[in-house]
Amino acid sequence: MALYGDYSTAFDSYHALARVGYDFGYFALGPEGWVLGDESSDAQRLGGFLKFDFPELGTFYGELLLSAGYQFVNGSDNDMSGNFGEEGAYATINFKTAFGRRHPAPLK
C-alpha cells in the first residue's frame, strides 16, 4: 500500500495518490487512484500499476513503476485550458534508485 499527498497555498494546488497492490516478490500489481487540482481545474485518475524491484543492480537498488488508466477532468470544460489536460487515457513511468547501497534503508 502506498499513500502520498501534498498541498500548496500557491494556486491552491493539491495532489494525492493511493495504490493498493499484491506483492509477488520482485514485482507488485494493483489498482491506483489519483486526485489533482488547483484553482484552474481538477482531475481524477483511476487505473492500475505494475512495480518491479531490482534489488541488486551492481551497487545500487532500483524500482521501476508503470501505471495506466483513465483521467477525468472537470472545471475547465475539458478544453485544455486547465493544468491537467483533457479527459482520456494516461500512462506514467517512473524509475528511482538510491546509489551507493546494496539494499535500501528501512523506512522509519
Structural write-up:
The chain contains no helices and 7 strands. With 108 residues, it is mostly beta strands. The protein has one domain (2-98). Strands 1, 2, 3, 4, 5, 6 and 7 form a 7-stranded antiparallel β-sheet that branches. A hairpin with a 2-residue loop joins strand 5 (42-57) and strand 6.
- Determine the N-to-C terminus distance: 16 Å
| Count of domain modules | 1
The helix/strand order is EEEEEEE
Show unreliable segments.
none
Question: Structural class, please?
Answer: mainly beta
| Average of the residue pLDDT scores | 85
Percent strand equals over 45%
Helix count from the secondary structure assignment: 0
What's the total number of strands? 7
State the helicity in percent bands. Answer: under 10%
Concise synopsis of the structure shown:
This protein has 108 residues and is mainly beta. It is 0% helix and 64% strand. Strands 1, 2, 3, 4, 5, 6 and 7 form a 7-stranded antiparallel β-sheet that branches.
Keywords:
108 residues; mainly beta; 7-stranded antiparallel beta sheet
What layout of secondary structure does this protein have?
Blueprint lengths: L1 E7 L4 E7 L2 E2 L3 E11 L4 E16 L2 E15 L13 E11 L10
